[in-house]
Design a protein that fits this description.
five-stranded parallel β-sheet; 211 residues
């Protein structure tokens, strides 16, 4: 699984710690981490949580990533931004139980973490435990056991509703402020990581026109 990490500007200083915690847990499982930054608070490319949502949605819709880890001060804004786009189901995760139940009940493909609120002593341990529960036990298997069938049925219903209510990703991107969208792809390693992993030629072609 290709797991993308995205930090917005208010919590960019924690990127190295978050990336190290994520890699420590998931690389032994056979997953690959692609760190899209921001890498430091003074990066030339300053991503807002809205732009983190744009970037995350493009990575998932293009096949450049299979899962996105993002967040902001509280995690709420990043979650809302991610869930504004098609083919993205982003959960708000604060602890390992959130991670486990989101993976098995909601079976999403992104999480938004609070990187400021409640992030103190032991913060990196909480991240490691979250990533263990998120990626170490499979997805979509339901919880608790007696709720498996209705939960899996409800997930399929939700996917059907979202397919009707959300427009294709390229339509969304082209109708947005193009400077806002372009800024989402301005990260130092974006082009190196994205074009090597993108599996959607139409999305890649559109992004090339912006860059």
């Amino acid at each position: 699984m290709k797991i993308a990490l995205i930090n917005e500007n208010s919590q960019a200083a924690k990127n190295e710690l978050i990336a190290a915690s994520l890699k420590k847990v998931v690389e032994p499982m056979g997953h690959t981490v692609h760190n899209y930054g921001m890498y430091a608070a003074d990066d030339a490319a300053q991503l807002t949580y809205v732009q983190a949502g744009i970037l995350g949605a493009v990575l998932l819709n293009s096949g450049a990533a299979d899962y996105v880890i993002t967040g902001c001060g509280t995690g709420e804004g990043a979650m809302l931004a991610m869930n504004s786009f098609p083919n993205v189901i982003c959960g708000h995760v604060e602890d390992p139980v959130d991670a486990y139940t989101f993976a098995h009940v909601n079976d999403g493909n992104a999480i938004a973490l609070p990187f400021a609120k409640g992030f103190g002593w032991g913060g990196e341990l909480n991240l490691e435990y979250i990533f263990e529960k998120l990626f170490g036990f499979g997805h979509g298997q339901g919880y608790p056991k007696e709720r498996v069938v209705p939960e899996q049925r409800n997930k399929k219903i939700l996917d059907g509703v979202r397919a009707v209510t959300l427009r294709p990703i390229l339509d969304c991107l082209k109708d947005m402020d193009q400077d806002l969208v372009k800024g989402a792809f301005a990260g130092e390693k974006f082009q190196e990581l994205f074009f090597a992993n993108c599996q959607n030629e139409e999305i890649a072609a559109y992004i090339k026109t912006l860059l």
